[in-house]
Amino acid sequence: MIGWMGKRKPLFLFGMLALLLAGCGKENLTAFEPKGYGAESSMNLIILSIIIMAFVLAIVLLVYVITLVRFRKKKGQENFIPKQVEGNKTLETVWTVIPIILVLILAVPTVVATFDLADKSEAQDGINVEVTGNQYWWHFNYQGDEVQTSQDLYIPTGERVYLNMKSSDVIHSFWVPSISGKMDVNPENVNTMYLEAHEEGVYWGKCAELCGPSHSLMDFKVIAVSPEEYDQWISDMQSVDPEANPEDAVAQDGKALFEEKSCVACHAIGSSPNATGPNLTNFGDRTKIAGYLEPTEENLVKWITDPESVKPGNKMTGNYPDVSEEEAEQIAAYLLQLSPSDITTESAGN
Amino acid sequence: MSIAAAQNKGFLAAVWDYLTTVDHKKIAKLYLFAGGFFFLLGGLEALFIRIQLISPENDFLTAGLYNEMITMHGTTMIFLAAMPLLLGLMNAIMPLQIGARDVAFPFLNSLGFWLFLFGGVLLNCSWFLGGAPDAGWTSYAPLSIQSPGHGVDFYIMGLQISGAGTLIGGINFLVTIVTMRAPGMTYMRMPLFSWTTFVTSVLILFAFPALTVGLFLLMFDRMFGAAFFDVTLGGNAVIWQHLFWIFGHPEVYILILPAFGIFSDIISTFSKKRLFGYTAMVFATILIAFLGFMVWAHHMFTVGLGPVANAIFAIATMAIAVPTGIKIFNWLGTMWGGSITINSAMLWTLAFIPSFTIGGMTGVMLASAVADYQYHDTYFVVAHFHYVIVGGVVFGILAGLHYWWPKIFGKILNETLGKLSFWLFFIGFHLTFFIQHFLGLMGMPRRYWVFLKDQGLDTGNLVSTIGAFLMGVGGLIFVINIIYTSVKGEKAPADPWDGRSLEWAIPSPPPFYNFKQTPLIRGLDPLWIEKTEGKGKITPAEPLGDIHMPDASILPFIMSFGFFIAGFGFIYQVDHKGWLAAIFVGMGTALICMLIRSLKDYHGFHIHKEELEREAD
């Protein structure tokens, strides 16, 4: 019989550590519970490096404590002069060589993973989404499918979705901790990364590069659904009629106001590529308003009437005529009924 | 001027004395005072940040003001607090350690200080003139270009002026160490603090020009319509990041290496042992400095430089762990077998070892590029660099202050208050920053003005804020200690700690000419050698003779003030061309000072042999 836990011991410790860290944070936000390929790849290296470094720290602390206990000046030793040692070749070699080996143990998998995550060889056949970072919202254009949306990114599980990212203003950084590490969104070049979610779910995304006053409110969602549901969502989005009249009378007034108050100048409904503001095609299915508020009519009215109080420094403030409370309610009624697809966050098991 | 004239003066005369001084010890005090002031200011900004983050969706600060707060906290702490405090200690101690009477260029030394001070004051004027810079201490383009108002302009001009001061200081120390070591003080006999001052100065010499260039380009973009970083006009924003980090990463070592030197001297003194592996320590310092220039892109793993660049910079970064590890073990080796005294200076040093080791650990973790995709720009990074900069640099400065306070000010800091402030600050520090490692991976990016409700981030942030206040109280008690000591502290003897290096061989505080006779150095730890093998006193290398001293001068102050005025001119000429006049007046003032300095002969003065003989030993 092999000793405690036998050969599986390292694996067990590995698992314990992962379990311990998994207790940290909110599910579908924390990087400690990876639900996608990139996040797993990062987490493996995080755990490997913690183990190596904890080993080093333990040795340092051990020597440190022993030194302090044994060699602290004691009563009656006031005149004791210790031996003046110049050094010790063997010891110094040991503590040079061992760290080199430890670093190599971490370096090799790091290099492998770095190249692995940068692999774009299958991008051409895969799903490609053009991602645009804006102060302070995200735009998603499903390349080849003529589908556009903002803030909520729908992806199928088990498939690599390639994101071709560029910024329209300052640098942003696209981060969905549960699915993948982050990548910067620069104004001058297209950066490509991929998302591969293992499980269905609604994952929280954040901007990770300081981009102005509302940097901390530039949240978005990645909604991972089954491949069938994803296909359904794409076809639903493609068949949207942007001119469709709402059934509800209040919403009909809202639609008229949407044009009258020049909302339509910036916000597209349907797949217009030229809109400068967030696309509102499936606004009624959005998980949040302005990226972080609950999708209630009350919040939407507040967002429309006083955007500055919701997102300081946003580009909507002052770019449309005054909207009264009542008018805002009508616009809200119109926007909240925009729900072209049955595939929503509920399909992602949320 | 004679020795007698240097004493017994009125208040105004004392102010004039400090405005015109070229004495490295007085300039050191100016650096320590100004750096200490900015440290308290930066600390206050940190507390505002932590109050804002005490609870989710808090509205203590507005979003814009919060961004100004984080920008100024970082910029102030790095450029206006940590570096000047270290430059102060270097100024005070390094010439004494190598047996010199002053630095190589006393006039430039003074100029370096006043440039730093006026640069720092200019930067902080922004608070009262429409708002501080708000693009982060890294000031990434294009955010820094689009930032409205003049905040970022103050950042550019303030740092440009104070950066010039630092560069001058670095060159000065370099020349001092190369040319002014006492007879017998070979390079391999220099105390580690002098060694790290030397290596740090080399880093300053090569790193600061990259910042200067970056700031110039940014200045032309913002003030003169250029488009170096403007993508829409064919510029490139990522270049700013390269320039900034080619400076910024060595900057980290500019801060930490002198701290390493301080710890090396303190550990050796209070263990009563020669530094273990001295040669390895010196070469590890040089190696860290060299590698420090090869790793800047590890701040840019997520920029999209591609897997080749990321892999190379990942490995280069990990390599730095090796010489750093050598240092940690050599410090432990020095203490091993020694007779360790634990007082305030040693407490800060002992606290440094585990704290900095944790910072180093997370440093290696960050070096793993793919893991960094998760850490980058989150509170994990915030935790990491505070472990390195507070746990390394700030602990180092505080250790150095307790250790050299008697030498610089002639009084010993109060031990009880010293220990109290240490424990509060130390506990507060770990409380504040340890939990931030977890906050980062739990999904909290850095520079977040608010964090949202129900994201599991509340407890961690609350703990962090409580810790920050403990640090604040600890810092306050240190200030009280300084005041208490200056009023009631006991007078320090020349050698209060049974020291080993040369600075302990002369009175506390030293006379303004430092060494009556240039000392003769017989080995590493010269004073220790004389205590154990010689006659207990340093042997002079020359007979008593006249000492030549440099003249005091107000020119550095006026020159720096000229640049300060010109700074406002550059900033406001964007609004109204009338401000161009300020540029001409300011630059003109500086140029006239340079002209006077170049054309007028400064003979200095001599302290005569007879006067020196009258001075008691």
TrEMBL record, chain A:
Q: What is its main location?
A: membrane
Could you tell me which residue ranges the Cytochrome oxidase subunit II transmembrane region profile domain spans?
23-121
- EC number(s) given by UniProt: 7.1.1.9
Indicate where this protein resides in the cell. Answer: Cell membrane
Relay the cofactor remark from the entry.
Binds a copper A center.
The residue ranges of the Cytochrome oxidase subunit II copper A binding domain are: 124-236
Cytochrome c domain location is 249-339
Instruction: Provide the reaction this enzyme catalyses.
Output: 4 Fe(II)-[cytochrome c] + O2 + 8 H(+)(in) = 4 Fe(III)-[cytochrome c] + 2 H2O + 4 H(+)(out)
Provide this UniProt record's keywords sorted from A to Z. Answer: Cell membrane, Copper, Electron transport, Heme, Iron, Membrane, Metal-binding, Respiratory chain, Signal, Translocase, Transmembrane, Transmembrane helix, Transport
Its record classes its membrane topology as:
Multi-pass membrane protein
Enumerate the GO terms in the molecular function aspect: copper ion binding; cytochrome-c oxidase activity; heme binding; oxidoreductase activity
Could you tell me the Gene Ontology terms of the biological process aspect for this record?
ATP synthesis coupled electron transport
Q: Which GO terms describe its cellular component?
A: plasma membrane
Q: Which cofactors does this protein require?
A: Cu cation; heme c
| Cross-referenced CDD domains | CuRO_CcO_Caa3_II (cd04213)
- The record lists the membrane-crossing segments as 45-69, 90-112
Q: Which NCBIfam families match?
A: CoxB
Family statement drawn from the similarity comment of this UniProt entry = Belongs to the cytochrome c oxidase subunit 2 family.
Tell me the function of this protein: Subunits I and II form the functional core of the enzyme complex. Electrons originating in cytochrome c are transferred via heme a and Cu(A) to the binuclear center formed by heme a3 and Cu(B).
Name of this protein: Cytochrome c oxidase subunit 2
- Species in which this protein is naturally found: Oceanobacillus jordanicus
Task: Give me the gene this protein comes from.
Answer: coxB
UniProtKB/TrEMBL annotation, chain B:
If you read the UniProt record, what top EC class would you report for this enzyme, in one word?
translocase
Biological or metabolic pathway of the protein = Energy metabolism; oxidative phosphorylation
Q: Which GO terms describe its molecular function?
A: cytochrome-c oxidase activity; heme binding; metal ion binding
TM regions (residue ranges)? 30-49, 69-90, 111-130, 154-180, 192-219, 239-263, 275-296, 308-333, 345-367, 379-401, 422-442, 462-484, 554-572, 578-599
**Mind naming one GO cellular-component term on file for this protein?**
plasma membrane
Bilayer topology annotation: Multi-pass membrane protein
Q: Where in the cell is it found?
A: Cell membrane
Superkingdom of the organism of origin: Bacteria
Q: What does the function comment of this entry state?
A: Cytochrome c oxidase is the component of the respiratory chain that catalyzes the reduction of oxygen to water. Subunits 1-3 form the functional core of the enzyme complex. CO I is the catalytic subunit of the enzyme. Electrons originating in cytochrome c are transferred via the copper A center of subunit 2 and heme A of subunit 1 to the bimetallic center formed by heme A3 and copper B.
Similarity field: Belongs to the heme-copper respiratory oxidase family.
Instruction: Indicate what this protein is called per its UniProt record.
Output: Cytochrome c oxidase subunit 1
What is the source species? Oceanobacillus jordanicus
Q: Which gene encodes it?
A: ctaD
